[in-house]
Amino acid sequence: MPNIYIEAYEDIAKGSAIDVEFEVYCSSCGAGLCHVTQVSVTRTRRMPRVVIAPCPDCIRQAASDGFDEGYESGSECEHSSVCLDTEND
Hints:
By secondary structure, the chain is α+β, with helices and mostly antiparallel strands. The chain has one domain (3-87). Helix content is 33%, strand content 22%. It contains two helices and four strands. It has a two-stranded antiparallel sheet with strand order 1-2. Strands 3-4 form a two-stranded antiparallel sheet. It starts with a strand and ends with a helix. The model has no long low-confidence stretch (mean pLDDT 76).
């Protein structure tokens, strides 16, 4: 589970810190994304930063859907002279 360690500003409470733990889920399929989430700090301001990679399950599904659509449109063109003419352009 990702967590962020945040140092509190001096004017709030000197020397205090907040530890935040959170869970990350895909909004499309609901899969847990903690394993593709990175927590770090920004280079210039040293502020907490969370980077979440796209959901691997949704990427696989999108690739599969795209392959299926391409396969289906290819099989439609198999017996059509119109599709053959556009392929040569």
